[in-house]
Amino acid sequence: MNTEKTDLLAQSDHGAVRRITLTDVRRRNALSESMISALTTALEAAAEDSAIRVVVLAADGPAFSAGHDLKEISGHRGDADGGQAYFEQLMAACSALMQTIVRLPKPMIAEVRGVATAAGCQLVASCDLAVAGEGARFCTPGVNIGLFCSTPMVALSRNVSRKHAMEMLLTGDLVPAARAAEIGLVNRVVAEGDLEVETMRLAERIASKSQRTLKIGKEAFYRQVELPLSDAYDYAAAVMTANLMDADACEGISAFLEKRAPTWER
């Protein structure tokens, strides 16, 4: 098992699954400028590693992520422009990170222990799947400090219904893990002691699939969901036709018909 660790991130490979763990416990794993950069770099490396099929995002400490580092933000109020240029840069970098997750050619699972607030909640919502410990909580509390969670809103509103998203955004209230599962923010809730085991079990199950098929499916999912119904079917039909011509699809169908385990080309 390969392991790397810095003050911000730890990375370890478990077969075809890469675990990336936020380790900036002192700052509650805030999405500081340096954290955003480090996480983006780590995901880009995972995307290029042909041995990795699934990425799990976890965190050390009592907070999965407390969102943006408000002390870091406030420190730029004294800039000549009141911080505007820095704020624009920070929001652009954070938005790019979330889109990197969506465009990652490998499924990404959030393993959530503790609280995920504001951009930390956005991080969870941006992942393809999420498994939460029973004590996890989620919120978009910007409204409480005069800063509406507008960028977290983008990911949140694409995961839960409009009314549930608006309730979180307008009240800033903490949502317990069980409720987060009810509204679709997370896939499942498990006992705290079982969180890593259950998340890795899910990751390893997905990692057993064809890497090429996972890439095709994830990309197609996010593209079609933004299209009108007729366009979505046209696009999906073209994707499925191309997928049928792929060697792994030929192998998978043959294996199914022959009642044997498939051997994926990639």
Automatic annotation (TrEMBL):
Q: Which Gene3D superfamilies match?
A: 2-enoyl-CoA Hydratase, Chain A, domain 1 (3.90.226.10), Lyase 2-enoyl-coa Hydratase, Chain A, domain 2 (1.10.12.10)
Q: Which UniProt keywords apply?
A: Fatty acid metabolism, Lipid metabolism, Lyase, Transit peptide
Q: Which CDD domains match?
A: crotonase-like
Domain of life, per the record? Answer: Bacteria
Q: Does the keyword Repeat apply?
A: no
InterPro entries per record? ClpP/crotonase-like_dom_sf, Enoyl-CoA_hydra/iso, Enoyl-CoA_hydra_C, Mitochondrial_ECH-domain
Q: Which NCBIfam families match?
A: PRK08139.1
The text of the family note is: Belongs to the enoyl-CoA hydratase/isomerase family.
Q: Per its database record, what is this protein's job?
A: May play a role in fatty acid biosynthesis and insulin sensitivity.
Provide the protein name: Enoyl-CoA hydratase domain-containing protein 3, mitochondrial
What species was this sequence derived from? Hartmannibacter diazotrophicus
